[in-house]
Design a protein that fits this description.
- By secondary structure, the protein is of the alpha/beta class.
- It contains 13 helices and ten strands.
- Helix 12 links the parallel strand 9 and strand 10 (291-295).
Amino acid sequence: MDKKRVVVVGGGTGTHTVLRGLSRHADEIDLTAIVSMSDSGGSSGRLRDEFGQLPIGDVRNALTALAVTDDENHQLLRKLFLYRFDRGEGLSGHNFGNLLLTALTDILGSEVEAIKAASKILRVSGKVIPVTTDHTNLVAEYEDGSVIFNEHDIDILSPAISNLRIVKLYLSPEASLNPEAKTALIEADMVVLGPGDLYTSILSNCIVGGFTEALRESSAKVVYICNLMSKKGQTVGMNAMEHVNEIIRYIDRTPDVAIINSTTFSSNLLKLYAKEGDFPVHNNCTSDKCLIYSENLVSNEVINSVESDEVKRSLIRHDPNKLASILMKLL
């Protein structure tokens, strides 16, 4: 029997999580990750500025999620790709996988060839494809008319506008869809959007020129996995239905399914998030627009942060196996 083609679109830890879960079903599905190319913060942003290459942080996240770990050597190799330096002048904050991908790009002459080489090194069970190979920046326009240029600055907004809504998201300069990504979208049986920050991880892919047209041409089932928590400066005060409506607005298509967490969180964790202005995304969706899966989706895994990491990481994350179980049922 032919394998079903599943395409996961996004970036960051959310995409890493869902890919980890789905990679355990590699004998049943043909898995592809289409990842964002507008990252401008942390190790990836620093290397982008210094070497003039495409940002590779989201690529590295996806590669390590799909890496084979069937023996001690490959487990160690995966840990090496994920390793982040916490000391050393110039090295602190950098991720080893990012450095290796940067070196491979220099050696092989292109980011695409570097990704293919790293995929072989890690024995990746699937494909990782940049959404575009054009150099571009993410731009957000807010309801007061403020315009923020580049993904990192959208993530760390000044207090003056951090409680405002994004009314328009676009790329400058405009970027075109990678032909490989176009083919993957058109031929997919299922396209999974998220989880991840709505604007910087998910919709940053959907606004690439040609993306919505490819998705419209595809007969794939479209599934949106809603974030667990709101994001100050991006989705402040937004409930699940408003997340879904933004997806509809930007992809010009209603998702067939929305997967939304139903469980509550400990008061200690909620207090930590509340200090940052972030709160759980309330499920106010109804099934008149799309099929709703509302279940306990939260991981019990403890997240350890690295002090030198410039990017604030989520403490509460989805459980990869719970997400994969729902997605496999939907196939």
